[in-house]
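Design request, tokens follow.
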């Protein structure tokens, strides 16, 4: 299951860290508490559209750019087999009595513009990490890890 708030948080954190800015700097510029911004970045809170616009403004980014990046990440994750499969279905496919060893990074894929890795944290929580592919990296292979 893809949690949109986690993908949004990852995208915001990546932009902030790319600018080498602190949570305090961005929270002050966006007029949001440091703790709340931290919770948004970690995917624990889902920001309102007004708050998301204020954070984007503080980062000097357009809301449409951020949402496009989030959309690209989710679209790539949807193409990855097993990302949207519930843990109950996955456990039914494994032999009885064996514990799932699929924790950690499950897959990494790229469409040439965005690379996505997926980690299944719990039955209802998957963490998606996305990164823009550098222009010098032309081809990336799909890698499966257990």
């Amino acid at each position: 299951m893809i949690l949109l708030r986690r993908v949004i948080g990852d995208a915001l954190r990546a932009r902030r860290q790319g600018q080498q800015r602190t949570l305090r700097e961005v929270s002050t510029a966006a007029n949001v508490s440091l703790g709340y911004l931290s919770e948004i970045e970690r995917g624990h809170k889902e920001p309102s559209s007004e708050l998301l616009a204020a954070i984007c403004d503080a980062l000097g980014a357009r809301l449409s750019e951020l949402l496009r990046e989030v959309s690209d990440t989710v679209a790539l994750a949807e193409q990855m087999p097993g990302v949207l499969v519930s843990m109950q279905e996955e456990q039914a496919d494994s032999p009885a009595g064996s514990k799932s060893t699929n924790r950690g990074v499950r897959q990494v894929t790229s469409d040439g513009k965005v690379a996505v890795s997926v980690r299944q944290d719990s039955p209802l929580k998957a963490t998606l990490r996305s990164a823009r592919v550098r222009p010098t990296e032309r081809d990336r292979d799909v890698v499966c890890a257990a």
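Comment from the thread starter after seeing the answer: thanks! The beta strands are 105-110, 114-122, 125-132, 143-144.
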